[in-house]
Write a structure and sequence with these properties.
With 321 residues, the chain is α+β, with helices and mostly antiparallel strands. It has 12 helices and 12 strands. It has 2 domains: 95 residues, Phosphorylase Kinase, domain 1 (2-Layer Sandwich); 204 residues, Orthogonal Bundle (Transferase(Phosphotransferase), domain 1).
Length: 321
């Protein structure tokens, strides 16, 4: 078994019998570390994702991780980041996936003079919402729940095409419908991101793809207002709000958001999953139709003139922030 130090310092290693040459560490997310590597035979860049050492304390984790990634390799959708391979190095499993150089949706959130996130015009939802909703419905139909949909996991390639990323911790619905949170929480690793976590998941109840719809709605809310519905000093404080408080209406928070758009988003933020849309595509269609039917907001357009965007130096499919 590789040591924790090994996991933190894979740059320079040759993996899979020399197939992949690890070039540099790109970053890390809640579930693992991310490296840029070179596929030596194909002469192309790929991304290597390695689980955090805390996860490896579970003796069954490596086998479970490998099994899940092998299942995810079979996913074929034009807006899902392609998982290429899964292997291990010194007993530490890793996943290999396509490298994307166009940055994330998070990078596209405009910033104000103090580097604070600012609203984006509702019209920009058309650039990504429909394809990502389609990708989520695709994986849901195949028995998977993403569980960590957020702007950092919505990526773009160099041509501006959008992709859903970070399925490294996805579980088959059959494995998650046990009426409790995943046993991995015992390692101290939080599954998902509190700001985007649906109430039923936060409460440890049975859940399905509607948790991803909720997270996608939070993402829309954030892009349109510059903030997430709920914040707090701790994960527990945020999750308490997710389960007990109602989010402030978008149109009241940001006057560039038409009421019809606000109402369409808030339906997907319902505490009761049964009150949300039947699927993510239905949600996207309702929101985009409301945007199309609403008059263009002049104040939003004038605000954008004074905003600067986050321009990433480098981006990859697994660098959750």
């Amino acid at each position: 078994m590789a040591t924790n130090t090994d996991v933190l310092n894979w740059a320079g290693l040759l993996l899979s019998g020399g197939r992949y040459e690890v070039k540099a560490k790109l970053g890390e997310g809640g579930m693992g570390f991310v490296y840029r590597a070179r596929h030596r035979k194909l002469d192309t860049d790929v991304v290597i994702k390695v689980p955090r050492p805390a996860l490896l304390q579970d003796p069954e984790f490596a086998a479970r991780f490998t099994r899940e990634i092998r299942a995810l390799v079979k996913l074929e959708h034009p807006h899902v980041v392609k998982i290429i391979d899964v292997d291990d190095h010194g007993g530490v499993p890793f996943a290999v996936m396509s490298y994307l150089a166009g940055g994330s949706l998070e990078d596209r959130q405009p910033l104000g003079p103090q580097r604070q996130p600012l609203p984006t015009p509702p019209e920009e939802l058309a650039d990504w919402l429909g394809p990502i909703a389609s990708a989520l419905d695709y994986v849901h139909k195949r028995g998977f729940v993403h569980r960590d949909v957020k702007p950092a996991n919505i990526l773009f390639d160099g041509q501006g095409h959008v992709y859903l990323s970070d399925f490294g911790v996805a579980k088959a619905v059959a494995e998650t419908q046990k009426g409790q949170l995943d046993s991995l929480t015992g390692t101290g690793v939080v599954l998902g991101t509190p700001q985007y976590m649906a109430p039923e998941m936060a409460l440890g109840q049975k859940y399905d793809g509607r948790v991803d719809q909720y997270a996608l709605a939070v993402t829309v809310y954030e892009m349109l207002s510059g903030r997430v519905p709920f914040t707090g000093s701790t994960a527990a404080a945020i999750l308490l709000k997710q389960t007990t408080e109602e989010p402030r209406p978008l149109h009241a928070l940001c006057d560039s958001v038409p009421r019809a758009v606000s109402e369409a988003v808030h339906r997907a933020l319902a505490k009761d999953p049964a009150k949300r849309y039947p699927n993510c595509t239905a949600m996207a269609k309702e929101i985009l139709a409301a945007v199309a039917a609403s008059p263009r907001q002049g104040n939003a357009l004038s605000t954008i003139k004074h905003q600067t965007s986050r321009v990433p130096v480098i981006s990859c499919p697994q660098c959750s922030k």
